[in-house]
Amino acid sequence: MGELGLLGSTINGYGCAGVSNVASGLITKAVERVDSGYRSGMSVQSSLVMGGIDEFGTQEQKDKYLPQMAKGKLLGAFGLTEPNHGSDPGSMETTAKPHPTKKGYFSISGAKTWITNSPIADVLLVWAKLHGTGKIRGFLIERSECPPGTLETPAIKNKNGLRASLTGMIQLDECPVPEANMFPDVEGLRGPFSCLNSARFGIAWGVTGALEDCISRARTYALERKQFKGNPIAKYQLVQKKLADATTDAAMGTLAAIQVGRLKDKGEAVPEMISMIKRQNCDRALHNARVLQEIFGGNAVSDEYGIGRHVANLFVTQTYEGQSDIHSTSPLSVRRVLREADKLSGLILGRAITGLQAFV
Ligand SMILES: Cc1cc2nc3c(=O)[nH]c(=O)nc-3n(C[C@H](O)[C@H](O)[C@H](O)COP(=O)(O)OP(=O)(O)OC[C@H]3O[C@@H](n4cnc5c(N)ncnc54)[C@H](O)[C@@H]3O)c2cc1C
User: Fold this and answer.
1) Is residue 153 domain-resident?
2) Residue span of the structural domain in which 104 resides
3) Across the chain, what does the average pLDDT equal?
4) Could you write out the DSSP letters of every residue in 247-281?
5) Measured in angstroms, how far is the CA atom of residue 63 from the centroid of ligand 1?
6) Which of 11, 78, 106, 164 could disulfide-pair with 96, CB 3.0 to 4.6 Å?
7) Number of domains in the chain
8) Is the confidence at residue 354, as pLDDT, over 70?
9) Last residue of a domain, one of 150, 181, 212
10) Of the residues 114, 157, 189, which should be mutated to test ligand 1's pocket, given the most ligand atoms within 8 Å of the CB?
11) 228-240 burial, b if ≥16 CB within 10 A, otherwise e?
């Protein structure tokens, strides 16, 4: 991915491609068509860690990490979720306080869980509450600099979804981190939420790629599988409806993501738009993948057909970076959604019909 320029592709400079948000969305979609876990590894590196450093890091932090991360020589992880605090990261327990013996260092203690890439990451962007202010701050923790016993990143084994991506914990026990490794200015949830916003935009694109692969697999299967008088099951309208519903949602989801991408490129996208497309595209991709799974009958249970893998993966996409129900409730300002919906829908409706024709 580093050699292809896929990592941190929207960042300008530091060896990154500097492409538009729409172009990066198309990359994400193509990668997730392979597997959502494959895309997750790329998104964490690109949007959550490189994006965070680019937006909030000091010049020294950018110069030190971004070129190596762009090449894939350094791998990043993003530690926000904790065992007791998932949807409600504002209640996190991880803390950073002045190190008792090392001058110019913080001492960070706490636990993060369900962290993509953590078992093998070189740079861990960890969010912790700063002693004294109680405000959330971002810290870049370099694995190679941590004394033994202060940082452990055990893998979470036997996952039934996102198996192509490594997930683990981050356990910090009075880990010394140089003060220069803290993001200097950003405080509170604005830091992590800003990184998540960009990653959620990628997820909204990516899941349409996974859904398109489900449609393609289901279509091929339905044409080959014959039941009742030697008819391919694709001949039956009940089966066709499943394919038509999924195709419509994939096309509409793609169009919505394109529109938000264009607005993002013009600096006009707002977080509520990204919440809307993340929630909608994930929900529709998961629903349709589950329905398409039925076309495979008993064979759906076999890994060989790939559909069950997408279904398990899409459950994760609906859950991480804000579970769908959470996106529908507290973070959304209903008034702003209604106001922005106009901007969102204008182009989508205009292009929906041509888009659908092109897709089918
Ligand atoms: C494979 C994988 C990779 C991940 N990678 C990362 C990563 O790299 N970095 C990271 O920081 N995190 C990561 N996560 C964690 C993920 O972001 C969290 O799992 C997610 O935020 C949900 O938190 P939770 O699991 O604690 O669920 P909970 O917050 O406990 O929620 C459980 C259920 O309760 C519902 N619920 C909670 N509060 C409310 C409410 N107020 N109103 C209505 N319903 C509510 C939720 O919608 C959900 O359905 C990953 C998770 C997975 C599975």
Assistant:
1) yes
2) 77-181
3) 93
4) HHHHHHHHHHHHHHHHHHHTT---HHHHHHHHHHH
5) 33
6) 106
7) 2
8) no
9) 181
10) 114
11) eeeeebbeeeebe
Closest residue by CA, ligand 1 atom 39: 326
CA distance 273 to 268: 10
- Distance in Å, CA 210 to ligand 1 centroid: 21
Nearest to 112 by CA among 176, 191, 167: 167
pLDDT, tens digit, for every residue of 225-236?
999 999 999 999
Domain boundary among 181, 216, 234: 181
**What is the Å distance from ligand 1's center to 271 Cα?**
19
The verdict on 142 and 205 lying in the same domain is no
Whether 243 contacts 164, CB under 8 Å: no
In-domain check, residue 276:
yes
Q: What digits encode the pLDDT tens for the residues 251-294? A: 999 999 999 999 999 999 999 999 999 999 999 999 999 999 99
Q: Which of 195-199, 259-263, 329-333, 354-358 is the least confident region?
A: 354-358
Q: What is the residue whose two structure tokens read 């994400």?
A: 28
Rg (CA), the chain: 21
Long-range contacts of 82-87 (CB under 8 A, 24+ apart): 82/110, 82/111, 82/112, 82/113, 83/111, 83/113, 86/114, 87/322, 87/323, 87/326
Distances (CA, A) of 206 to 29, 262, 308, 309: 4, 16, 17, 15
* Helix/strand/coil for 144: helix
The CATH number for 266's domain is 1.20.140.10
Segment 4-21, tens digit of pLDDT: 999 999 999 999 999 999
Which residue is closest in CA terms to ligand 1's atom 31? Answer: 87
Which of 159, 197, 326 for mutating ligand 1's site (highest number of atoms within 8 Å of CB)? 326
The answer to whether the CB of 313 is under 6 A from ligand 1 is no
Residues 6+ apart with CB under 8 A from 345: none
